[in-house]
Design a protein that fits this description.
The protein is an alpha+beta fold and 269 residues long. The protein has helices spanning 86-94, 102-114, 117-131, 136-154, 165-173, 236-243, 256-264, and strands at 33-42, 48-58, 178-182, 191-199, 202-210, 220-224. It has seven helices and six strands; from the N terminus they run E-E-H-H-H-H-H-E-E-E-E-H-H. A four-stranded antiparallel sheet has the order 3-4-5-6, sandwiched between helices. A two-stranded antiparallel ribbon has the order 1-2.
Length: 269
């Protein structure tokens, strides 16, 4: 278990037979989850000599991490305090982009550009705490395994796997249910169609990638019917043809509008 970044206090006291301790936290912004309220007594070597904890549950669906208060986050005694290389931490933060929302991307850029180890540690810990308040380290480790996988599968000499379109989609939505691949011939670029049978609250969503370089792993996303992704009007019939295993042959009777859409996206026929 890790301490909450915004609900940790430390107070030094002189030695005495009895020391009354009083304090309070406002939990208005505390996220939904299971928590332990923990009080520890530590000696001057920072070793715990006594502790007591009390379990409680919190339901607060409106609460979110306040990114404007990153400076208040405490990372001591968390897994993040052991990440002391600025370059390593920058890379770890960059790896979060595929699963970050607009606000998180902005704060991540600020953290990386700050070149401030402490600030980057606080951002990194806050990010994973917001994803799993019970065990942010475990959540990061699971995600890191996925990053390592996409780096191996989709990385190139130019870009790392998580920077590629296929890597981003994999990290954001998970592994596709099926993949249909088309190899290069006289009429087509190499392509892949990823089919997600269930993707959150969406079903039967397709992603079409193609490789204009003909070789290597640099596949670009040119179409998806998933919400918020690249969408080209009138390309549905082409997606269906590809998914059935057909090739992009010039004698297929497509409308001029569809041909124009394809031409703009770099397809040859």
């Amino acid at each position: 278990k890790q301490p909450h970044p915004n609900y940790t206090k430390t107070k030094k006291q002189k030695v005495a037979d009895v020391i009354p301790v009083m304090g309070e936290f406002s939990i208005e912004g505390l996220e939904t989850g299971n928590y332990n309220f923990v009080v520890e007594i530590r000696n001057k070597e920072n070793k715990v000599i006594a502790s007591k904890k009390s379990f409680f549950q919190r339901s607060n669906p409106k609460a979110k991490i306040n990114w404007n208060e990153i400076d208040k986050v405490v990372v001591e005694q968390t897994f993040v305090q052991n990440i002391t290389s600025i370059d390593t931490l920058k890379e770890y933060i960059n790896e979060l982009y595929p699963i970050s929302d607009v606000n998180e991307v902005g704060y991540a850029k600020n953290a990386v550009n700050s070149n401030d180890l402490s600030y980057m540690q606080k951002y990194f810990y806050s990010f994973w705490f917001s994803h799993n308040s019970s065990n942010p380290e475990s959540e990061w480790n699971k995600y890191k395994e996925q990053v390592n996988y996409v780096n191996k599968m989709y990385g190139s000499q130019i870009n790392k796997g998580y920077e590629s379109d296929r890597g981003r989609v994999y990290l954001q939505y998970g592994a596709p249910g099926s993949v249909t691949s088309g190899v290069y011939d006289n009429d087509t670029y190499p392509y892949e169609i990823w089919h997600y049978y269930v993707m959150g609250n969406q079903r039967n969503r397709l992603f079409l990638f193609y490789n204009r370089e003909l070789m290597g792993k640099d596949y670009k996303l040119i179409y998806s019917d998933a919400k918020g992704e690249v969408y080209i009007s009138n390309i549905d019939m082409i997606i269906k043809n590809l998914y059935r295993g057909r090739t992009l042959l010039p004698d297929i009777d497509w409308s001029n509008k569809i041909k124009e859409d394809l031409r703009k996206e770099g397809f040859r026929y």
